[in-house]
Amino acid sequence: MDLASVKDTFERACRKQGVGESSTLECVERILQEVVRAVEKLSVNDADKMENARAVLAELHASVCQIAPIQDISASQKDVNVATLKYGKVLDKAFCTDIAKACRDVDWADESLCQIIAVHFYRQGLFDLGDCFVNEALGPTGASLKAPFVEMFQIVEGIKMKNLDPALTWARSHRAALMQKGSSLEFELHRLQFLQLLLKGLRPEALQYARNNFGPFSVQHMAEIQRLMCCLLWTGRLEMCPYSDLFSVWRWEEMAQRFTRECCSLLGQSYESPLNVTLAAGSQALPTLLKMATVLTSKKQEWQLLKQLPVEIELNKEFQFHSIFACPVSKDQSTAENPPMLMPCCHVLCKQSLQKLAKNRSFKCPYCPAEVTMSQCRPIYF
């Protein structure tokens, strides 16, 4: 993509537009001056008004014809139109405006797609929009999608308003599940509540809160609790506290994100909206897909019939969720039809490579002396 030529053409069009604007304004200003001059003459010459008016208007007509505004403005506008048209052609050449040709027919259940969209609305707190979409696209089958996100959204909004009570209630009710995951969410909520009491100067209340709530977490978080206890000594002058980082305002936003992550995890949902991730990954892959589709079309190959892309598409790490196996013998990437197979010796080849080696008999592993039969191999999943 030659962005330099796009930039040059754009700047040239801008210059033409600027020149055209200046020329048009100058032309209008000259005509206005002639009109003002004619009005002044008409107001001064009272004797024989009709004759004077004719003479003044004839003079005005001659001046306007001499300025030739229509020709001047038309010429300027023509230059602008030519530059704009050229810029449009450069844009069309540099960017593919028809992204539909990169799309392929995919066997995808409409209901699953509608559920992803509905969940995205609910995750964003757009409950009215989500309800409308569910009623029109899913009906009764989508009624259960909303409830978990209503509670999550209300709690997150409470955290942003520095109200931790709903979040603490939720954490207590899900303590067993959080502990099984090794999550420290409940302790972090208590820590933030304790620090909030200190910020208000309520040292006795903060000390009592620590006694009531930090006990169950003393084994895993004793060092952190000791830091919190030291903060009690700095009540009223927390800005001088050696642990002042604990009182940073960004901790509230961090807690909102942390709670959302933990809640989504217990709900069996990813932290990021699947719809957002899909669109972001698709946008990153789109230029490569468009180029590939164009090349295949020029070679009269059917883009829709490809079972595997001829080139690898590089995506950022946040879009890589599964390991990809490439057969060390054939160098082919595994697919549903050609899955990776585990041999008894724990070496792995793709199914088609094993079938070529086996030929209905035992064969030697390419990487060790083990003798293997096809029946001993098992598919593995990453």
Describe the structure.
It is found in: Cytoplasm. Keywords: Cytoplasm, Metal-binding, Zinc, Zinc-finger. Pfam families: CTLH (PF10607), zf-RING_UBOX (PF13445). The chain is mostly helical and 382 residues long. The chain has helices at 3-44, 49-67, 69-94, 110-123, 127-137, 147-160, 165-173, 175-181, 185-199, 203-213, 218-231, 250-266, 274-298, 351-358, and strands at 340-342, 348-350, 363-364, 371-372, 378-379. It has a 3-stranded antiparallel β-sheet with strand order 2-1-5. The longest helix is centred in the first third of the chain and has 42 residues, at 3-44. The radius of gyration is 37 Å and the shape is flat.
Task: Offer a few descriptive terms.
single chain; 382 residues; mainly alpha; Herpes Virus-1; 3 domains; three-stranded antiparallel sheet; 3% strand; Rmd5_dRing; ZF_RING_GID; ubiquitin protein ligase activity; CTLH/CRA; zinc ion binding
Percentage of residues in helical conformation: 55-70%
Across the major sheet, the strand order is: 2-1-5
Overall residue-averaged pLDDT value? 84
Strand proportion: under 5%
Distance between the termini: 37 Å
Main sheet overview: 3 strands, antiparallel
Order of helices and strands: HHHHHHHHHHHHHEEHEEE
Counting DSSP H or I runs of 4 or more residues, the number of helices is 14
Rg is 37 Å
Kindly give the count of domains: 3
Counting DSSP E segments of at least 2 residues, the number of strands comes to: 5
So what's the overall shape?
A: flat
Domain CTLH: 148-205
Keywords: Cytoplasm, Metal-binding, Zinc, Zinc-finger
Subcellular location: Cytoplasm
Zinc finger (RING-Gid-type): 327-368
